[in-house]
């Protein structure tokens, strides 16, 4: 694989389990030696371990590990001390990620989502130029995810380069300037999410509650080139010409409560990587 990330860019790496996302990040971060090829981060090679590069990057690993018996405040102050960062700034970072009320809680008693936020705070405490995040929103509830998105946007808008992997495709679509979709260690597509979605020849799905429109009537409205399905809850018309269908539904006064969904990044992802289960 070969790709570059521009300074100040928000870049996402997407792929199913086992695609090579974490391995790729670990090579870029200097945690793993590449079998072949070259890697350059901020003009420097990350391998072998580069003391000049380490203060300029922040890393949040997929699996976080903290010192036993230390509180959240003690954990982040320990991380901060490695970079010569004062304790006050470390405490402020706990507030940034919404962990100030858990500052005195031992790390082993934090929930999964709280531990994830503490891990991100530790990655940010030294104000790095480039931030690497491996599935940062895993274990977070919807509210915490949205708060994390706001935090990452603000960091990126302040000039930091952010590189993340995620299984949440809505997250990548909302945050990333560009994404690389990979599988089996190779990049399948790379570009802005909106561009990848527009490049997918996908039908528009128009959905109504079952019983609102009979199947024969739905097929009449849909036309010969569309498909109609009924799962017992929703009648869905999949068409590449939605305007005539919506006009026909409007003529029947059936627009109330319908849902119209175009292609998303998830559709692109499934088109490229398939739908089979990955352990």
UniProtKB/TrEMBL annotation:
It comes from the Bacteria. One of its GO terms (molecular function) is ATP hydrolysis activity. InterPro entries: AAA+_ATPase, ABC_transporter-like_ATP-bd, ABC_transporter-like_CS, ABC_transporter_ATP-binding, P-loop_NTPase. This is ABC transporter ATP-binding protein. It is found in: Cell membrane. Signal peptide: none annotated. The lineage of its organism: Bacteria, Bacillati, Actinomycetota, Actinomycetes, Streptosporangiales. The keyword Nucleotide-binding applies. Gene3D superfamilies: P-loop containing nucleotide triphosphate hydrolases. Residues 1-209 form the ABC transporter domain. One of its GO terms (biological process) is response to antibiotic. SMART domains: AAA (SM00382). It comes from Acrocarpospora pleiomorpha. Keywords: Antibiotic resistance, ATP-binding, Nucleotide-binding, Transport. The keyword Ribosomal protein does not apply.
């Amino acid at each position: 694989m070969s790709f570059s990330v521009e300074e100040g860019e928000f870049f996402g790496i997407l792929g199913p389990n086992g695609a090579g996302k974490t391995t790729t990040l670990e090579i870029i971060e200097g945690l793993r030696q590449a079998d072949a090829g070259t890697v350059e981060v901020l003009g420097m090679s990350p391998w072998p371990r580069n003391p000049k590069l380490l203060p300029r990057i922040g890393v949040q690993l997929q699996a976080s590990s903290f010192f036993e018996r230390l509180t959240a405040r003690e954990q982040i102050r320990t991380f901060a001390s490695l970079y010569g960062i004062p304790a006050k700034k470390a405490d402020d970072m706990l507030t940034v990620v919404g962990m100030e009320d858990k500052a005195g809680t031992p790390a082993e008693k934090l929930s999964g989502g709280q531990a994830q936020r503490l891990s991100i705070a530790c990655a940010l405490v030294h104000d790095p130029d480039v931030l690497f995040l491996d599935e940062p929103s895993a274990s977070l509830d919807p509210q915490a995810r949205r708060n994390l998105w706001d935090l990452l946007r603000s960091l990126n808008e302040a000039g930091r380069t952010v590189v993340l992997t995620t299984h949440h495709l809505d997250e990548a679509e909302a945050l990333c300037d560009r994404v690389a979709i990979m599988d089996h260690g190779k990049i399948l597509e790379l570009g802005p999410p909106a561009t990848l979605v527009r490049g997918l020849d996908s039908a528009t799905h128009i959905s109504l509650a079952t019983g609102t429109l009979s199947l024969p009537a739905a097929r009449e409205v849909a036309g010969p080139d569309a498909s109609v399905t009924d799962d017992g809850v929703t009648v869905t018309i999949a068409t590449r010409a939605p305007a005539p269908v919506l006009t026909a539904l409007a003529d029947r006064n059936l627009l109330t409560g319908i849902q119209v969904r175009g292609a998303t990044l998830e559709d692109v992802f499934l088109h490229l990587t398939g739908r089979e289960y990955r352990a």
